[in-house]
């Protein structure tokens, strides 16, 4: 096994340290242990982010560090290059990397694993870039926690009733699992704050909007209806078939013409493939890089892709591609490792296959919905399954321990009401936190 151009050990460059890239590097490290192959991971982060728990970071149950898995601990032997890939030369087999101080580096590869994930899907709505915030990064999750606590404190001292109402109104756009989990966690945090400040919790308004006619279509009709009941019983207004037409500093306009005074808008309407896909000039489907069933990129030997950035044929639904979920990304990471190793002469390649394990959705105090292996669960049993699932799925014992202790703390004590103020409004803007939507 040798580097095809220099004759040295082969170089595998993995772009991105998310679910797919992380799992791929972890497995390659083992399967190529005795071969001398170099595995080089390029990512702007020194961690793998466990995104399913971001709503609990926003809700003040978990610390942001608990949901970030340190690459240096979890991937010994993998070379980490901290920077963003900004272009890939497929003919000369190089990637161009820019680090956080704008320094440039060019890395050559024999195998490329392309897993840069996705970014929040933005729409051309006036004010969205300035006044909306997404939920894809620790900075965004911390922003929501801090913003909620700060706005409630300021509202309690505000003498202008309209302004006070605006501070106490929180709007979340997107009622699939991420948006629904976020609003449930923020509601619980607001209820805790209200109880300790002697505030009437009904004075804090939460509005969940979605252009579709149901919440969480991913969990099916029956569980979706239960979720709707629970959200409404907690005083969350759910407005379906409704979206935003404008955002300003202190209000939003809904598609039915209603104007709601608010200073806080979460935009959680779905994702689109990382913009790096467009720079490749290769065929795409739904904006994601087309790959074959074995996750290789046709016409470019040695190039593989998976996760949210790739359009992976779904073997269970002929003609469809797999949805952008962590579950698929992790398993595609395994297939990527297997097939990259096979391309270097270790083991045999296999097409991507999966079995649907179901979904778990935590909806704040005492409630969750889950359909493990297709069995619909709600309430406390689902809550237990959801928390155990996350503890099991988290790929690091230290993080598992920290999250487990935080869950125990949550059972015994009220949520801590602390806004440390590290994630500012600016740091949580799409352009800064996700590098998207910047104006030229
Ligand atoms: C709030 C939230 C909750 C979710 N909950 C669930 C859930 O409960 N269950 C579920 O199955 N899925 C869930 N998902 C979806 C899941 O997070 C994604 O499907 C999954 O992260 C995709 O994995 P990935 O490896 O493709 O991309 P990501 O995990 O997004 O990782 C992409 C990596 O690429 C890096 N990167 C980006 N650009 C570059 C570049 N130019 N150069 C180098 N590196 C780059 C990023 O920093 C990151 O490390 C949730 C998502 C969110 C946002």
Automatic annotation (TrEMBL):
Pfam families: Pyr_redox_2. Residues 11-333 form the FAD/NAD(P)-binding domain. It comes from the Bacteria. GO terms for molecular function: NADH dehydrogenase activity. Gene3D superfamilies: 3.50.50.100. SUPFAM superfamilies: FAD/NAD(P)-binding domain. The keyword Cytoplasm does not apply. Keywords: FAD, Flavoprotein, NAD, Oxidoreductase. InterPro entries: FAD/NAD-bd_sf, FAD/NAD-binding_dom, NDH-2. Belongs to the NADH dehydrogenase family. This is FAD/NAD(P)-binding domain-containing protein. It comes from Rhodococcus oxybenzonivorans.
